[in-house]
Automatic annotation (TrEMBL):
Source organism per UniProt: Salarias fasciatus
GO terms under cellular component: cytosol
Phylogenetic lineage: Eukaryota, Metazoa, Chordata, Craniata, Vertebrata
Keyword Transferase: yes
Gene Ontology BP annotations: methylation
Gene Ontology terms for molecular function: phenylethanolamine N-methyltransferase activity
PROSITE patterns per record: SAM_MT_NNMT_PNMT_TEMT
InterPro entries: NNMT_TEMT_trans, SAM-dependent_MTases_sf
Keywords: Methyltransferase, S-adenosyl-L-methionine, Transferase
Protein name, per record: Phenylethanolamine N-methyltransferase
Pfam families associated with the record: NNMT_PNMT_TEMT (PF01234)
Family from the record: Belongs to the class I-like SAM-binding methyltransferase superfamily. NNMT/PNMT/TEMT family.
Top-level taxon of the source organism: Eukaryota
Keyword Electron transport: no
Annotated S-adenosyl-L-methionine binding sites: 41, 46, 85-86, 91, 107, 112, 165-166
Gene behind this protein: pnmt
Length: 288
């Protein structure tokens, strides 16, 4: 007869149970993503009102301003910028591509990687026209060059679009990065929308930390108070609802020093039924 676990055995059993539950949760999240629709996702989040570039209080201009500020501060430099969970979007590297000579995009899904490759190869068939974004960031940068020059630079510095799984202790193929890691990471709306709970979110932060050089920066953008978003028509993808304190605690626990946290509260007219997000955070942090 098997007796009930006692003392340390019971503790180990609890850990095993928690790990098992987390693995089941991660597999369920991966299943949700199998029917992710890049074109619909872009339409929901990257067209007005959320991407009204004429309004300072629209969500996309707020994100672009945070990224512009963070990437133009003197403490950020190096050769390689790595974008974690790029999805089908490019906005998150429009400022960083002026600082780093190499940008590596990544995503879990081939449909998203294809969407990015179509833009990089300038082959047509893209689901979104990124021109207004390029023009907007050129304006933030004081119009040092034209938007077409920026597009040419971005196409040149994106060196690859590779698979990633942030739930693996080694999220990318072993030879994908230089041995020392990337100089800087950027990641937007990825970790909280692919993790079944806060513990998995924190663990994923620890995994991506391994891809970064010592003292390298992390620019993390994410949703606050969100429990789901639409990844396509009728596809509700669960999200870990985070608050600011949890973001700060997770960063600390996974080996980052927070430099700055900025928060955006969603105006009423940005609540358009494609998610239940209440705010957005931007964190600039450094690997301890
Ligand atoms: C909410 S989207 C964010 C996309 C984009 N970064 C943005 O700012 O809009 C989440 C992305 O995470 C990707 N993803 C899903 N599971 C993942 C995993 N296990 N590891 C890394 N990325 C994952 C999805 O394919 C999707 O592109």
């Amino acid at each position: 007869m098997v007796s009930a676990p006692r003392g340390r055995d019971r503790e180990q059993n609890k850990c095993y149970q928690a790990a098992w539950e987390m693995e089941k949760g991660i597999a369920a999240m991966a299943a949700c993503y199998q029917t992710f629709d890049p074109a619909a996702y872009l339409q929901y989040n990257y067209t007005p009102p959320r991407a009204d570039l004429t309004r300072k209080d629209s969500i996309v201009p707020w994100k672009l301003a945070c990224l512009h500020r963070a990437f133009t501060e003197d403490d950020v430099s190096g050769e390689l910028l790595l974008d974690i969970g790029s999805g089908p979007t490019l906005y998150q590297v429009l400022s960083g591509c002026e600082v780093f000579n190499k940008v590596l995009m990544t995503d879990f899904l081939e449909v998203n990687r294809q969407e990015l490759r179509r833009w990089v190869q300038d082959a047509g068939g893209c689901s979104l026209d990124w021109t207004p974004y390029l023009q907007h960031v050129c304006k933030l940068e004081g119009r040092r060059y034209t938007w077409t020059e920026k597009a040419t630079r971005l196409r040149r510095v994106i060196v690859d679009v590779l698979p990633i799984d942030v739930h693996r202790p080694q999220p990318m193929a072993p030879d994908a990065l230089p041995a020392a890691g990337a100089d800087c990471l950027v990641s937007c709306f990825c970790l909280e929308s692919v993790s079944p709970d806060l513990a998995a979110f924190t663990r994923a932060l620890g995994h991506i930390r391994k891809l970064l050089k010592p003292d390298g920066h992390l620019m993390l953008i994410g949703a606050l108070g969100e429990s789901y978003y639409l990844g396509g028509p009728g596809l509700k993808i669960p999200v870990v609802p985070l608050n600011e304190a949890q973001v700060c605690a997770s960063l600390k626990e996974s080996g980052f020093t927070l430099i700055r946290l900025e928060v955006y509260n969603l105006p009423r007219d940005m609540r358009i039924g494609v998610d239940d997000v209440t705010g957005v955070f931007f964190a600039k942090a450094k690997k301890k």
